[in-house]
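Notes from hallway chat w/ T.B., transcribed later so I don't forget. T.B. wanted the structure written out for a chain they're using in a teaching module, and asked if we could keep both sequence and structure tokens in one place. Agreed to drop them here.
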Amino acid sequence: MLGTKLDVRPFLHRVGEELARIDPREVRALADLIYECYEHGRTVFICGNGGSGSNASHFCEDLGKGTLRREDFDDDTKKRLRILSLTDNTPYILAWGNDEGFDRVFVEQLKNLAREGDVLIAISGSGNSPNVLRAVEWANRRGLKTFGCTGFNGGQLRTLAQQGLHVPLDDMGIVESIHLTAFHWVVDHLHARISPASRDSPASRDR
């Protein structure tokens, strides 16, 4: 944990340096994958544990609401992004975790809900969370598109997922923060692509 060794200013400076190391093509690939899902009326699923689980919930609500203009809220003809965080159905998670094992809490939800062509965004700082890996393995076999968000050395998830965003840093807190920062760009970018009034925004033009 870098914050145990660095004071505030050098800590923040280091975070900025790590942000600058991220490959922008990986962030854009995530945005393109979600947009393709939107265009074809498919569903995006997101999962993660702990802070990554919190990021999954945060990213889900931002994508569901933040890609819309306020004037679209009451327009029932407006096409919306189909998105669900698998971290948020607490009774379902507890039932599977208690009765059959925590490694099943995400994959069993996918078995009920997912279809070929859907997208699974799997977030794991270590890249080795068993329940995340099991969900990605199942999704790959069933024709879903998988995207892994990792830190450290990427673990198994970095190679298991079909695409990914990697933060090469051995600090879980900063990894999670950088993931969330990237997610916020994705939300803004997708708002520009999905909302007609924003079609000519800079985020759209630089494509």
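Follow-up for T.B.: The first helix runs from residue 8 to 21. Might be a good example for the class.
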